[in-house]
Amino acid sequence: MAKRKRRRRQLAPPSDPPIRPGVVGLGRQVPAAIDRPPYIPGGEPGPPSSPLVRTTDELSRMRKAGAAAAEVLLRAGEAIGVGVTTDQIDAVVHEETVKRGGYPSPLGYRGFPKSTCTSVNEVICHGIPDSRPLADGDLVNVDVTVYLDGVHGDTNCTFLVGEPLEHDVVLVKETRRAMYAGIGAVRSGSRVHDIGRAIEAHATTFQLGVVEEFIGHGIGTEFHAGLQIPHYYEPRATTELLPGMTFTVEPMLTLGSPRMHIWDDDWTAVTVDGRRTAQFEHTLVVTENGSELLTLTAGGECAADRYESAQPVSTSSV
Ligand code: MF3
Ligand code: CO
Ligand code: CO
Question: What is the rounded CA–CA span in Å between residue 5 and residue 26?
């Protein structure tokens, strides 16, 4: 059969101007009394070396670090609004972290210059807080990691700024649900690939892409510990989940192609097609019958659940 000549379909253009690098201010100071993670000051954590299953004592410390991270993320969410710069969000995350006696894990990690990651619109993850003010209709993911009492708690949420576009509301809502679908696959005896299978199935139902280059990770005394948790179905990820294993589930879903590209700053990951992306993250521990979320406040709250209906965040300012 003859090949029909087809005009190549143009990718849908991004709906708004691309995100450009802004001015990155100096890294913030952490009071000397606060304990630093082992990769400070050099920045290099070295290869993961901690056991996959945590001790009871480590778990109780991780509940505290996780609760602190959840509280800080809620405070960051409250600060978001039209005109607020991502550097102002960094200030909130930094102050709220040190106020709780924690160290903001991103600061100085492999040379990262700021205390949190702020990823706007087509930025998939690892956006560096800078001078750019949030605009009406933006999406911003804030990723908070707190190092407290020798362990890390890592959690993130994508917030809608001002009046969102309908397809962005769907993207955010279904990315959140994809994270919970992945978490729902966690129990003693299931396998790592069950998590990604559940996330990918959810994304596919809503015709959303799944970014493959960044994955969930073991966490505890190390920021990024041994376990690797793909957010897509990876048949080779056969590691059996056991009670006491701790890791993150943090899917990044896209409206268009999940192909990514990293800026010259060596951090900012963006979609190649310029279309928008969202992410949610929790740190959890495997239990006999399921899992326990470690990144909830003492009252059981988290930013992902507060903004569950994917309604716009009120336009307060810092
Ligand atoms: N918090 C991110 C994660 O979920 C890691 C950020 S590393 C940084 O794994 F250096 F960019 F902060
Ligand atoms: Co993480
Ligand atoms: Co994170």
Answer: 55
Would the CB of 273 count as within 6 Å of ligand 1?
A: no
Q: Is 249 in the pocket of ligand 1 (CB under 6 A)?
A: no
Strand segments, DSSP code E, in 167-312 are 209-210, 216-218, 225-229, 246-249, 252-254, 260-262, 269-271, 277-279, 282-286, 291-293
Q: Name the residue at shortest CA distance from atom 2 of ligand 1.
A: 143
Q: Which ligand is nearest to the CA of 268?
A: 1
Identify the domain containing residue 283 by its residue range.
56-306
pLDDT on residue 55? 98
257 C-alpha vs ligand 2 centroid, how far in Å? 22
Distance 154 CA to ligand 3 centre (A): 5
* Model pLDDT, residue 317: 45
Query: What pLDDT score was predicted for residue 309?
Result: 78
Provide the domain count of the chain: 1
**Rounded mean pLDDT of the chain?**
94
Please report, for the domain that includes residue 253, its CATH number: 3.90.230.10
